[in-house]
Design brief:
By secondary structure, this protein is an alpha/beta fold. It has 9 helices and 14 strands. It has a 7-stranded mixed sheet with strand order 6-5-4-3-2-1-14. Helix 8 packs across helix 9. It is globular, with a radius of gyration of 17 Å. The structure holds zinc ion (2 copies). InterPro entries: Metallo-B-lactamas, RibonucZ/Hydroxyglut_hydro, WalJ/YycJ-like.
């Protein structure tokens, strides 16, 4: 499995995953030409993408979903409520590229894609897990609460992107209005650096987990702080960095390191 966050953060998100045969994007929340550029930079051809899986209808996840679908004839996968909420924002689409996710698992060639519920203030937000050749990759960002369901999926995953959105103190004392602070800190908001570290503790197992920290807030976080907060939670709990877990920061404006498992 080949996994690479192309863009990650409150300013726009897109992740590439492939088993060498099926090539997928999860979200397309920045300009289409930027996604094309970063795909090319990791040696992938945008016209070979087999599908875009949409997590939820927020603009930092859907900005160029319609554009890319039209240009490269890419099917778009989302559940019914998400389709209802986003379709008018995507522009005209070919009927055949509107794919409704109405069950938990679907197969595309040799890959099985599972969607799972995440807690966030969108109509029906989802995370995704991708299984092929006994390997599992997953995406879980935009979640206010690390539920049992998310935990069970990530326990199995060899590589995944997890949200490390904000530093709680920076958020509390930062410039956001009270209502927005309350939303972000709520059960359907975003995962803090500390909550992210604790979530990782919950899902470690026998095999090395390759974890990207992503969806960082531009205002209430910075990469080094997210990294150090998560690492200190792990070290306090005797987790061996590099043996039990490998932590990589997902870049905001360009592709991150590609990880193959
Ligand atoms: Zn969101
Ligand atoms: Zn988001």
């Amino acid at each position: 499995m080949i996994f690479c966050p192309l863009f990650s953060g409150s300013s726009g998100n897109s992740v590439f995953v492939s088993d060498g045969n099926t090539r997928l994007l999860i979200d397309a929340g920045v300009a289409g030409k930027n996604i094309e550029r970063e795909l090319t930079n990791i040696g992938e051809n945008p016209s070979e993408i087999d599908g875009i899986f949409v997590t939820h209808e927020h603009i930092d996840h859907i900005k160029s979903v319609g554009v890319l679908s039209r240009k490269h004839n890419i099917p778009i996968y989302a559940n019914e409520l998400t389709w209802n909420a986003m379709e008018s924002k995507l522009g005209k689409l070919k009927m055949e590229n509107i794919k409704l996710l109405d069950k938990k698992y679907i197969d595309i060639k040799d890959m099985t894609i599972e969607n799972f519920k995440i807690h966030h203030d969108a109509v029906d937000p989802r995370g995704y897990a991708f299984r092929s050749k006994n390997k599992v990759a997953a995406v879980a960002t935009d979640l206010g609460h690390f539920s049992e369901e998310v935990k069970n999926v990530l326990k199995d995953a060899d590589v995944f992107l997890l949200e490390s959105n904000h530093d709680i103190e920076m958020l509390k004392f930062g410039p956001y209005p009270y209502v927005l602070k309350k939303r972000i800190l709520s059960d359907i908001g975003h995962l803090s650096n500390e909550a992210c570290g604790n979530a990782i503790l919950d899902i470690l197992g026998d095999n090395l987990k390759n974890i990207y920290l992503g969806h960082l807030s531009k205002t209430n976080n910075y990469p080094q702080l997210a990294y150090e907060t998560v690492i200190s939670v792990l070290k306090e709990n005797k987790v061996q960095i590099g043996t039990d877990v490998s932590i990589t920061m997902a870049n905001r404006d360009k592709h991150s390191d590609v990880i193959c498992v």
